[in-house]
Amino acid sequence: MAMLNERLQDLSVIYWLKNLYPSGVTIVEGFQQQELVVPSIALENKNIMIRPFEIGNRKGLEDRYYTLDVYAVNKPQRDEFTYNLINELQNNISVYNYNQGFPPVYNPAQIGALIVGEIRSDYVKVMAELVTQLYYRATVHFVATYNPA
């Protein structure tokens, strides 16, 4: 069964992150549920909003809302990851057809792009008395509109 286009978009963001940080950073999809490995970045796809685009056409523009949770060893590392993500998101994210073979052992065909619009970052205070492993945390929120090729 072929993956839906929305799933291909999610996988494209995951592999974009893995290419951005090829070693030394753990990339996970969804909320960190296993033991926290620092540094790591977790992708959470928040929601989808479809808005009308053309009169007479039921197909609308699809806005995707994502959150990247950054877990770092110290403040400079957290800031570096956060600033790097903000800068790289401004270049948009290519979406690939992973239905051609998965996991991708070659370069699948590009089927579109996520055009990143709004980007926002927040720092999250981690209370030392509440966690066993001290780390520094930030979130990068972004909204992207899928643009087919």
What does this protein structure show overall?
By secondary structure, this protein is of the alpha+beta class. It has a single domain (5-148), classed as STM4215-like, CATH 3.30.2000. It is 21% helix and 40% strand. It contains two helices and six strands. Strands 1-2-3-6-5-4 form a six-stranded mixed β-sheet. The relative contact order is 0.21. The model has no long low-confidence stretch (mean pLDDT 87).
Question: Nutshell version of this structure?
Answer:
With 149 residues, the chain is an alpha+beta fold.
Shape label? globular
**Strand adjacency order, main sheet:** 1-2-3-6-5-4
Structural class: alpha+beta
Helical element count? 2
Number of domains: 1
Please trace the helix and strand order, writing H or E for each element. HEEEHEEE
Indicate the CATH architecture: 2-Layer Sandwich
Low-confidence stretches: none
CATH class descriptor = Alpha Beta
Overall mean confidence score, pLDDT: 87
Radius of gyration: 17 Å
The fold-level CATH name is STM4215-like
User: What's the end-to-end separation, in Å?
Assistant: 22 Å
The proportion of strand residues reads 35-45%
How many E strands?
A: 6
The helix fraction, in percent, is 10-25%
Query: Main sheet, how many strands, which sense, barrel?
Result: 6 strands, mixed
The oligomeric state is single chain
